[in-house]
Amino acid sequence: MSDRLLLEEACPASQSLSWKIHAQAFAQEGMQAWLDFRIPYSVTGNIALARQKAYVLFESLPQGTDPVYVLELGAGPGFFAWHFLQAWQELAPDRPIHYLLTDFSRATLEGVAARPAFQVMVETGCLGIFQLDTPRPEALVAISEVQFEIPKQLHAIIGNYYACTLPTTLLCWQEERLQERWCKTWLHLPEGFPDLSPEQSQALKQWVLELAVSQKISAQALQNLHAIFSQESPDTLKKLTKWAEVLPFELMNELDESSYYEPIQFSGLSEKEIQLLLNAGQALREQSFPWPQGLWERLKQLENWLAPNALFFLSDKGYYLSSQSVPADLSQPSLHGNTLAYPLHLDLISDWLRLHGWQTAHTPYPFDPLQTLVAAWRPSPQNSWRENFAAHFILQNNNLDAARLVRAAQDYQTQGDDQTAVGFYQKALRYRPGEPRIVHELTACLIRLGAFRLAEEMLDIPVIDLYQQFDFDYQRGQIAFFLGEPAQAIESFQLSLIEQGEYASVYYSLALSYLALAQEAEAKDSLKNCLKLEPHHSAAQTLLAKIQTP
After folding, report:
1. 88: three-class secondary structure by DSSP
2. Residues 346 and 485 in one domain
3. What integer pLDDT is reported at residue 327 of this predicted model?
4. pTM of the full structure
5. What is the pLDDT of residue 251?
6. Pseudo-torsion of CA 246, 248, 250, 253, nearest 10°?
7. DSSP conformational letter for 70
8. Rounded distance between C-alpha atoms, residue 530 and residue 527, angstroms
9. Which of 476, 414, 467 is nearest to 436 (CA)?
10. Please, are residues 534 and 504 in contact by the beta-carbon 8 Å criterion?
11. What is the pLDDT of residue 535?
12. How confident is the model at residue 165, as a pLDDT?
């Protein structure tokens, strides 16, 4: 039996197969990956963070009526842009702003452009949606209509959960020199996988490398797999099919990497940039650390596109060596489906920015997983950007306060203490008003506590759910059922099935509501639909058997 398959010979970590899968996942999954929470966006969808950055930019600009141009890199589904523009309209309703929402994934951007909430902003000229990988004005590809001229100079660049998703090189100081990690990549094969001949190994390798990740496997791909194992029994082919159907969504988790370090060959770097890397390696000694070389390259290209005093906002997971609080292993990425991310060495990024004419400041919270770095491009002496950053990110940091409250609420939920969790969620909403995730979790706690009227009031709060991700209709149905209003519950559960898709729990709740109205035929249909989705749903099995018994 074979237990693993060689997919890629050794190469620098930043060029490895993992990063190719990562890029393919972002490009192919499109909007649905965000909506299914396969890609985290606690930063990119953050109401408080968007408002804080809008305040800092507004207060750092000279007064006037000249248009303001903002570029967001890696914008994903556009949550951050929407919240930023809402805040700007409150701050400066008479000062035009033109926001360039960009991402390299066309599929994601087409999903943004299709949403009515963004179409209104496009029509009024405050938003343009563009595909962009290399950050130069001539590389912009318009996805939406654009009601403004492409700016010759930008006033702000925003990168949220952006730098850590660029191909990252892992460096380490070993044998008194800086070395680069190289990786050899294997695919883990499940127990009982058929023995592979050399020809089959090569064919299977090619099949895996051509696999469309994070998508339902195609009939053609399954046919090609069966052709490789045409001599196997029908039972084995059935097992291979089940493995293949899961693999596109779990490919990153099924990779094994063997690694070693080679002396790094510096290319395209100045002597001072090389010295920054050498200093970072000597400071960490034999601990590996990530170097987002792609970020340096992109920021250099942006410099000719910036107005004096332009601000660069970078919010990401990272650490500061100067904080004396460094993760135990910086070479381990966090995995999210088929994407990965390394924590940023923010001292190294900050040092590079200062080397190239920027001034920098950052949040001083070493134990928080989210850090914000702001950099000003050749600021004038009278510019107050640093004081504005301190006022909204250090002296008062609504995003940090909200994040801590949400984490505390989640901890209490895990412990089964919904009563205490409710209090923390309510406080968090003061900082992130209308955030759908908080409203959804708070309502769920109230339902479990039996506080149905309070839960009903909670769902009357205006919620900013741009993509209808959260199943508030199901919660409305639960509340109506427990308040003795089965007809209203049925209506809400049916809306949930239409808007959110089919789920066994919704069909089961729908069946209970029908039974409350003595509509047994409809209840039977709902239970059968429930069991189609979840054949081992014991409560549905018991209830259906009870109904069908004469």
Report:
1. helix
2. no
3. 67
4. 0.88
5. 93
6. 140
7. E
8. 5
9. 467
10. yes
11. 93
12. 82
Q: What is the DSSP string of 7-54?
A: EEEEEEGGGSHHHHHHHHHHHHHTHHHHHTTSS--TTTT-HHHHHHHH
| Residue 193 included in any domain | no
The residue range of the domain holding 93 is 41-165+291-395
Burial of 189 (0-12, 13-18, 19+ CB in 10 A): middle
Beta carbons within 10 angstroms of residue 509's beta carbon? 22
Cα distances (angstroms) measured from residue 489 to each of 421, 499, 544? 26, 15, 20
**pLDDT the model gives residue 339:** 85
Angle of helix 504-516 relative to helix 538-548, nearest 10 degrees, comes to: 30
Which tokens in the block code for residue 274?
């090389």
Tokens at 374, concatenated? 């702001």
Q: Classify the C-alpha dihedral 476-482-484-487 as positive or negative.
A: positive
Question: At residue 362, what are phi and psi to the nearest 5 degrees?
Answer: -150, 165
Q: Supply the pLDDT for residue 223.
A: 96
| Six token digits for residue 11 | 């190469």
pLDDT value at residue 1 = 55
Are 527 and 547 a contacting pair, CB within 8 Å? yes
Q: Are 390 and 358 in a shared domain?
A: yes
Query: Edge-to-edge strands of the sheet including 371-377?
Result: 141-142, 127-131, 97-103, 68-73, 154-160, 306-316, 371-377, 358-362
How does strand 318-319 pair with strand 255-263? unpaired
pLDDT of residue 2: 67
Hunting for tokens 């496009």 — which residue is that?
122
Phi, psi of 313 (to 5 degrees): -105, 120
Which portions of the chain are predicted below pLDDT 50?
Answer: none
At 336 the pLDDT is: 80
pLDDT for the residue numbered 241: 95
- 459's CB contacts (< 8 A; 6+ apart) are 439, 443, 472, 475, 476, 479
Q: Which of 43, 21, 101 is nearest to 318 (CA)?
A: 43
Backbone φ/ψ region at 501: left (φ over 0), alpha (ψ -120 to 50), beta: left
pLDDT value of residue 482: 96
Residue 183 host element (H or E): strand 177-188
On whether both 411 and 544 belong to a single domain, the answer is yes
Which string of DSSP letters, residue by residue, matches 466-534? TT--S-HHHHHHHHHHHTT-HHHHHHHHHHHHHHH---HHHHHHHHHHHHHTT-HHHHHHHHHHHHHH-
453 and 370 in one domain? no
Q: Is residue 220 a part of any domain in this protein?
A: no
Domain count, the chain: 2
